[in-house]
Specification:
With about 550 residues, the chain is mainly α. The chain has 23 helices and 2 strands. Belongs to the aromatic acid exporter (TC 2.A.85) family.
């Protein structure tokens, strides 16, 4: 009886909890439904605020679709084109892109592919009609096989894959539709003409909207995006060095923040992820007309090369950022000895990067004094500071500056490691203690599960038991900082090469002073979308 009463009480308790959980679940769903409209409006506002051109492009697409729909809605136009007017609507949906270069690339590919496919299909149809009914079917099948295989194989050619892949697809689609339809339909020639005219109308409306009404140029986007990369890298370097020499409380606060909020990560992430974006913009920019006073071919591929150099430069910043997150860190008292030259050095590198970004943004050559004497002085002071402390990098003969093995093991067992980092100022080379602990484990005093738990601790013991210098992690940090200065020369050479090929104007101190005055008036940083857009030839 007691057992039955307990079971019944348990069932009653479960039954009481079910409606409560359902009610809580409904409340959560209700709260989400209340927040959904507000969240949607906030997202829509944020997307438009980030780039107002998105709103303009959306309106352009809507106007274009309205115009081509008149082919269906107006009776005189519908009688002329018939149901083939739907191809104009499809063309606008597929061809009209955000930038003029992308629209030109797709529109010309679609028009050229349709024209070539129609011409070839009419030629095959003319030859096939001169033969018998059976031979006509064999001839059409053979033509479809040969043209389809040839066109598909041509898509693997790198140049065609890069520039005309969409046109080849349209060619295959149109050719097969016309050729196969001609075997059963008698008036296929008229249908092909109407379809070609409607596609041409759709492409014409797309080009009109892209080139004449608030055009967005891929070349300008690539230019501004490349100039903005330098500012992001400069911020990453300065933030990385400042964080390395910051106080411990500030360090813990930054460790708790996610990577998305890390200014160092955000600065170089855009550069590292820009390869495909740069190549796509350069491709579309090559299709755009020469909208400058000099009708020469603008070196858009040179921007891609500069992007590759900046990515290699960014890899060094990634390694520098990794020094902030290593398990073994140099004591802050040792870091303070080299704080001033490192911060000055990072500041000069950031200043040079910003000058390179401004030179690209304003389409002028960079300043002759971009590598100032202050940069060389900071390098000299850092080298002098390192040479003044030889014992820190060579290591002392005694082992007073090493961590005891027993301390590491006791911390590993008790789980009292409050930080992931181990300071090398307390590392001790006690190999006898390591051997003692190995012998204890072999003696079978601990279980297999305990052995598995101690393996990470033993790995750390094996690393920290070596005679490392307490300043060795800082040596890696300093060498990467010097490597950044060395790679800065490669970036400067690539920027100068871009300026020479693109015919940038010569550097003028008055122009630089004018830019500084304008920035001070705006009381803001010179963002790419705030600066005046100039001709590509300037």
């Amino acid at each position: 009886m007691v057992v039955e009463m307990e079971v019944n009480n348990g069932e009653n308790t479960t039954n009481n909890w079910v409606p409560i959980m359902k009610k809580l679940h409904m409340n959560v769903i209700g709260e989400k439904m209340k927040k959904f409209p507000k969240l949607t409006c906030r997202t829509i506002w944020r997307v438009g605020k980030e780039d107002p051109r998105r709103v303009i492009h959306s309106l352009k697409v809507g106007i274009s679709l309205t115009l081509v729909s008149l082919l269906y809605l107006m009776d005189p136009l519908f009688k002329g084109f018939g149901s083939n007017a739907i191809w104009a609507v499809m063309t606008v949906v597929v061809v009209l892109e955000f930038t003029a270069g992308a629209t030109l690339c797709k529109g010309l590919n679609r028009g050229l592919g349709t024209l070539l496919a129609g011409s070839l299909a009419f030629l095959i149809e003319y030859v096939a009609t001169k033969t018998g009914h059976v031979f006509r079917a064999i001839f059409i099948g053979a033509a479809l096989f040969f043209i389809g295989a040839t066109a598909t194989y041509m898509r693997f050619i790198p140049y065609i894959k890069k520039n005309y892949d969409y046109g080849v697809v349209i060619f295959l689609l149109t050719f097969n539709l016309i050729t196969v339809s001609s075997y059963r339909v008698d008036n296929v020639l008229k249908i092909a003409h109407e379809r070609f005219y409607t596609i041409a109308i759709g492409c014409g409306i797309c080009l009109l909207m892209s080139l004449l009404i608030f055009p967005n140029w891929s070349g300008e986007d690539l230019h501004n995006f490349t100039a903005a990369k330098f500012g992001g890298l400069a911020k990453s370097i300065e933030a990385c060095v400042n964080e390395y020499f910051s106080d411990e409380e500030q360090q813990k606060t930054k460790e708790n923040s996610s990577d998305l909020e890390d200014p160092i990560y955000n600065g170089y992430k855009t550069v590292l992820d820009s390869k495909s974006f740069d190549e796509t913009l350069a491709l579309y920019a090559s299709w755009e007309p020469r909208h400058s006073r000099h009708c020469y071919r603008f070196p858009w591929q040179q921007y891609v090369k500069l992007g590759n150099v900046l990515r290699h430069f960014g890899y060094t910043i990634v390694a520098l950022h990794g020094c902030l997150q290593t398990e073994i860190q140099t004591p802050r008292s040792v870091r303070a000895m080299f704080k001033d030259p490192c911060i000055r050095l990072s500041g000069e590198v950031a200043k040079a990067l910003k000058e390179l970004g401004d030179s690209i943004r304003y389409r002028r050559h960079c300043s002759p004094e971009i590598l100032s004497d202050h940069l060389h002085e900071a390098l000299h002071d850092l080298n002098k500071a390192i040479k003044s402390q030889p014992k820190l990098f060579i290591g002392s003969k005694n082992n007073t500056n090493k961590l005891t093995l027993a301390t590491v093991i006791s911390k590993g067992q008790s789980g009292a490691l409050n930080s992931r980092r181990v300071s090398l100022s307390s590392v001790k080379t006690d190999t006898s203690a390591l051997l003692d602990w190995k012998s204890k484990l072999r003696g079978g005093s601990s279980t297999t599960h305990e052995n598995l738990k101690l393996r990470p601790t033993l790995s750390k013991i094996a690393i920290t038991s070596l005679e490392f210098s307490e300043a060795l992690p800082f040596a890696a940090f300093a060498s990467l900082l010097v490597e950044i200065v060395a790679r800065l020369d490669l970036v400067i050479e690539e920027v100068e090469e871009l300026g020479r090929i693109a015919h940038f104007k010569e550097y003028n101190d008055d122009d630089e002073h004018h830019v500084v005055v304008e920035i001070d008036k705006k009381n803001s940083k010179p963002l790419p979308n705030q600066l005046p857009t100039q001709d590509s030839g300037d």
